[in-house]
Amino acid sequence: MIAEFTDARLVAVYDAVNVYRPGTQPDFYAGLAAELGAATIIDLGCGTGIVTCELAACGHHVVGVEPAPLMLARARARPFGDRVQWIAGGASEIGTPGAGLAIMSGHVAQFFVNDDEWQLALAALHRALAPGGHLAFESRNPDAREWERWTTDARTVVVDPVAGRIETWTEVVGRRPGAVSCVNNYVFEDAGIALESACELRFRTLAELSASLERAGFAIARVHGDWDGRPVAPDAPELVVVAVR
Q: What's the pLDDT score for residue 6?
């Protein structure tokens, strides 16, 4: 989704296009933070700060880390954005704050397509956590093969308060072992313009995620198959991972 991070028009409507359903990512991570009693939370790849600022609103000290300047600017301007410590950059910029919880929401884990880069990010998060701290993230379950439903027929219409009606859909344009390339399409109906953004996503199996976490010094505490806490199964849409340092 590189174009989403560099095109101001797409960043402006990002929140409208990527609405989280109740009980999913923001609620899950807020509940986990409360359960763990995490005073300091790192949000790596925080995007426009949807989850970041909700955690800050709950009273946590949150460190939001985002490499895309336009996304970070929008995050800073959100309600409670003034309570967040923002870092422009990637995992290597986090340092060692001794956090109790680190998260990667919005399927950020899948944007680490290169396994070496993924391993470096996990190592950086391990250093940033206090002993006994937790890392939580979600990755789409490859067994569920969600990409097979990303077609031109699966279109969604959302209404942005400024841009108006926007029709969106995702189309797969290529596959290689463990990864899917796709194009996200956006038609701004009121303005009569169409934009595209290309991305490649890594679909790691639970075994691959487990091995990479172990190499970085983590142990998996639990894995859910979706936000409702269901067990992992071949048809479960997500791999929601909670690991401990």
A: 66
3-state secondary structure of 105: coil
Q: Are strands 156-160 and 84-88 parallel, antiparallel or unpaired?
A: unpaired
pLDDT band at 7 (very low <50, low <70, confident <90, very high): confident
5 pLDDT higher than 70: no
What homologous superfamily does CATH list for 2-140+203-244? Vaccinia Virus protein VP39 (3.40.50.150)
Reduce the DSSP state of residue 102 to 3 states and report it: strand
String of DSSP letters for 66-91: ES-HHHHHHHHTSTTGGGEEEEES-G
With helix as H, strand as E and coil as C, how does 12-29 read?
HCHHHHCCCCCCCHHHHH
Buried b vs exposed e over 161-195: b needs ≥16 C-beta within 10 Å?
eebeebebbbeeeeeeeebbebbbbbbbeeeeeeb
Return the closest-CA partner of residue 108 out of 32, 195, 181, 43. Answer: 43
Partners of residue 223 on adjacent β-strands: 241
State the average pLDDT over residues 154-160: 95
Report the C-alpha gap between 89 and 165 in whole angstroms.
32
**Beta pairing class for 164-176 and 156-160:** antiparallel
Q: Which residue has the tokens 């359903």?
A: 21
Which one-letter DSSP state was computed for residue 58? T
Check residue 3 and give its pLDDT: 46
Amino acid at 52: T
Q: State the Cα–Cα distance between residues 53 and 61, nearest whole angstrom.
A: 10
Q: Is the pLDDT of residue 1 over 50?
A: no
Domain boundaries, the chain: 2-140+203-244, 144-201
> Two tokens at 91?
């995992």
